[in-house]
TrEMBL record:
Pfam families named in the record: AlkZ-like
Protein name in UniProt: Winged helix DNA-binding domain-containing protein
Organism field: Amycolatopsis arida
Keywords associated with the record: DNA-binding
GO molecular function, one term: DNA binding
Length: 370
């Protein structure tokens, strides 16, 4: 059994997730083994900026495709790997499906069918309808009348009855449908390589997802992994736990890591990088937040219920938060450090701010320190 401290874990994650900026090819970054979450705030683009030496965009790059995957959130994946996820992300059983849908007993009763069947029925309807790029609203409007009454809900904000939001998101990829990157409003499109709704879940593929999480965010527990996947720790332990893991004690806490990564954990490179991480950056997706930010009083600054800021990485620590505001063709950044930072770190932040602005096609207006 290995014994390491939190600083070693942070140094390992910084290096493993490509934040030392040594990769020249974005497709080679290990974060794409799991996928990189995106939003309308260019989060995936800025996650790439933090890791890539060359300026690059995921939009328009055929090597990457956007889809609703983990927890129903939009993620960029390597295009060649996305069809395999259609079966790997199918819930294993009804308990798993209820957890991923966050459905209670009343929701299941209202559906009138097992949740796994509800996903398959909805996926079949999406596949029939989304044969060309269509907005999310158009797809929802087209499939809702085709679905059993128990799978649609009255939506007060929309003022109509339509398919349950999370049900649509979890059913899209099994239907062979992804998202048009950069489109607003959200636009669905058919994918190549998914011949039909998978007949059954791909257990080996689902286990591989767990293994990727442990490699990128480890050492970690089954509960940590389940939080990312969107299921329960029992499901992960019972059905998805990989065999080739080593047990690690992190400051006395029991966790696990793929055996092939053990040497990198015990002797990681020095995490000297200063990076401006976007909201939902892969590094911030770990579920053991006390490892990322040990002072719990700072958690409410880094992770908010609505409107997460970006995070400042310095010396292997989350050292602050940042927000950006666009005015004309200029980008202004406001940085809020969690503790006093050296002049060298502040200068490096300004350099990173230039990269962030350039990636968004803007000039840098100012960097303000709160």
């Amino acid at each position: 059994m290995l014994e390491v401290d939190r600083q070693q874990v942070m140094a390992y994650r910084v290096a493993t997730q490509g934040l030392l900026r040594t990769a020249s090819d974005p497709a080679a970054l290990r974060v794409f083994d799991l996928g990189v979450q995106d939003s309308t705030r260019d989060t995936a683009l800025l996650a790439l900026v933090a890791r890539s030496r060359a300026s690059a965009s995921l939009v328009g790059d055929s090597r990457f495709t956007l889809a609703w995957t983990h927890r129903g959130a939009p993620h960029f994946h390597r295009s060649a790997e996305l069809p395999g996820l259609a079966a790997a992300l199918l819930p294993l059983d009804d308990a798993d499906a209820r957890a991923r849908m966050a459905w209670r007993r009343r929701d299941v009763e209202q559906a009138g069918m097992p949740v796994t069947e509800a996903i398959r029925v909805t996926a079949g309807a999406i596949r029939e309808v989304a044969t060309a790029p269509m907005t999310k609203g158009a797809v929802s409007g087209a499939i809702s009348p085709r679905l059993p009454e128990g799978l649609v809900r009255w939506c007060r904000p929309c003022g109509v009855t339509h398919v349950h939001e999370q049900l649509m998101r979890l059913s899209a990829l099994p239907a062979g449908v992804g998202l048009v990157a950069g489109a607003s409003p959200a636009t669905l499109m058919p994918l190549d390589g998914v011949p039909g709704v998978p007949a059954s879940p791909d257990l080996a593929g689902a286990t591989r997802i767990v293994r990727h999480y442990l490699a990128l965010h480890g050492p970690a527990t089954a509960a940590d992994t389940a939080g990312f996947v969107g299921t329960t720790g029992k499901v992960v332990e019972r059905s998805l736990w990989p065999d080739d893991l080593v047990e690690v004690r992190v400051d006395g806490r029991r966790a696990f890591l793929p055996a092939e990564d053990a040497d990198r954990l015990t002797s990681p490179p020095e995490p000297a990088a200063v990076r401006l991480l976007p909201p939902w950056d892969p590094l911030l997706q770990a579920r053991d937040r006390a490892v990322l930010v040990p002072d719990r009083a700072h958690h409410k600054e880094v992770w908010k219920i609505l409107g997460n800021p970006g995070a400042l990485l310095a010396g292997g620590e989350i050292a602050g938060t940042w927000r950006a505001k666009v005015s004309g063709h200029r980008l202004a950044l406001t940085v809020s450090p969690l503790w006093p930072l050296s002049p060298a770190v502040r200068a490096a932040v300004s350099e990173e701010a230039e990269r962030v602005a350039a990636a968004r096609g803007l000039g840098l207006g100012s960097v303000t320190w709160k």
